[in-house]
């Protein structure tokens, strides 16, 4: 051990004494490399480079570049995600166990770059109600994939919508579909084909806003997440997470459509459900 150490010292002395220019070259190289990476991450072309095409899987290099971008972002961010570490860890654990996944997130926020980086080799799509907020978030994180959604509900209608659900045949679990479902007001019938055509492995309901009467509320997001999960054709369950379950509407709708018996974890204000594909078309939500 001592011998190796002495040999190392001699080597560095050799570099310093006889070839100082090698050391200078190494320092310049390191600084240059760092600057190159920083300018690469900040360039406008990063988004194209990282996305690997419309919905193509990212290469290992691009996934790493995205994760570096996230590290830089959160290392210098003044605002952090709203979910606690314990809450974030619930979906992180699932992402880790599944590997690259299809991850649908309701709501764009300070957590968006984090979710995308945690699923760097998968597909992460955000559904956001507020087009102005989309532009604000994309300015700092242009690599995020977002769709803007115009909801047809208001939080103040939450009770009435439950009655509508009971009386409208197109809302029933037996008929459950959301694409082109104009009669059931809980069905998100305005999403892109990309959303309908993807089998989502994880769905995070952390939006739209549901804390004032005129806000869209999360009723349709929870109902539509349940329908998408029940219609899954791939093997395995759909992991559905609902945040803010300390609120009445989130709690009632999650119990109604995602079901207490499918609730596998409750951490802080987050509930985690595992929804199997509907065994038969006649089965009810719960
Ligand atoms: C509960 S927030 C989601 C917050 C997100 N999970 C986070 O950690 O930042 C739900 C919605 O609030 C809105 N929102 C969140 N932060 C905002 C901000 N700073 N300014 C304007 N709207 C915001 C967006 O419409 C978003 O979809």
Automatic annotation (TrEMBL):
Q: Which residues cross the membrane?
A: 21-41
Q: What is its main location?
A: Golgi
What processes in GO biological process is this protein linked to?
methylation; xylan biosynthetic process
Q: Can you list the GO cellular component terms from the UniProt entry?
A: Golgi membrane
What keywords is this UniProt entry annotated with? Answer: Membrane, Methyltransferase, Transferase, Transmembrane, Transmembrane helix
Cell compartment(s), UniProt: Golgi apparatus membrane
Q: How does it sit in the membrane?
A: Single-pass membrane protein
Tell me which EC number(s) this protein carries: 2.1.1.112
Pfam short name (any one): IRX15_IRX15L_GXM
User: Enzyme class, one word?
Assistant: transferase
Which GO terms of the molecular function aspect are on file?
A: glucuronoxylan 4-O-methyltransferase activity
Task: Return the PANTHER family for the record.
Answer: OS11G0490100 PROTEIN
> Which NCBIfam families does the annotation name?
A_thal_3515
Q: What is this protein called?
A: Glucuronoxylan 4-O-methyltransferase
Native source organism of the sequence: Handroanthus impetiginosus
């Amino acid at each position: 051990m001592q011998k190796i150490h002495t040999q190392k010292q001699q080597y560095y002395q050799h570099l310093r004494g006889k070839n100082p220019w090698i050391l200078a070259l190494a320092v310049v190289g390191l600084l240059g490399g760092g600057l190159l990476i920083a300018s690469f991450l900040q360039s406008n072309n990063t988004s194209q480079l990282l996305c690997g095409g419309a919905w193509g899987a990212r290469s290992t290099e691009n996934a790493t570049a995205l994760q570096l971008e996230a590290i830089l972002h959160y290392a210098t961010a003044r605002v952090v995600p709203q979910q606690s570490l314990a809450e974030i860890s619930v979906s992180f654990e699932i992402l880790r166990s599944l590997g690259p996944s299809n991850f649908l997130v309701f709501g764009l926020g300070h957590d968006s770059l984090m979710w995308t980086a945690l699923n760097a080799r998968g597909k992460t799509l955000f559904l956001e109600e507020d087009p102005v907020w989309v532009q604000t978030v994309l300015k700092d994180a242009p690599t995020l994939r977002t769709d803007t959604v115009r909801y047809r509900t208001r939080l103040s209608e939450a009770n009435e919508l439950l009655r509508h659900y009971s009386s409208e045949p197109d809302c029933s679990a037996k008929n459950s579909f959301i694409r082109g479902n104009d009669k059931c007001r809980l069905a998100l019938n305005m999403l892109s084909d990309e959303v309908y055509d993807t089998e989502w492995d994880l769905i995070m309901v952390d939006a739209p806003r549901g804390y004032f009467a005129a806000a869209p509320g999360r009723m349709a997001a929870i109902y539509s997440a349940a329908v998408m999960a029940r219609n899954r054709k791939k093997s395995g369950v759909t992991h559905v997470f609902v945040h803010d379950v300390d609120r009445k509407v989130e709690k009632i709708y999650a119990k109604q459509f995602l079901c207490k018996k499918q609730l596998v974890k409750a951490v802080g204000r987050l509930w985690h459900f595992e929804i199997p594909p509907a065994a038969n078309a006649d089965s009810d939500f719960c």
